[in-house]
Amino acid sequence: MTNRRSFIKKSVAAGAALGFTACTPRALRLAEKQLNIQHSSRYLPKLRISLDRVVKETVGLRPYRTLGPRIETENLGNTTLVHNYGHGGSGWSLSWGSAAVAADLVDTSWGKEISLATTSLQSSALPPTAARKVAVVGCGVIGLTTARMLQRRGYEVTIYTKAMAPDITSSKATGTWSPTHRLIESDQITDTFRDTFKQMHQTSFLAFQNLLGLGDKVVWTDTYDVRQELRPHGDLPHNDQYAFMNVLPKSKLLNDKEHPFKESVVYRSTSMVFNIPSLLKMYTDDFLRFGGTVKIQEFKRLEDFDALPEKCVVNCTGIGAKKITDDPHLTPISGQLAFVIPQQEVNYRIATKGAYTINRQDGIVVGGTHKMGSWNTTPSREDTEKMVLAIKEVADAMYS
Question: 58-336 architecture in CATH?
Answer without folding.
Answer: 3-Layer(aba) Sandwich (3.40)
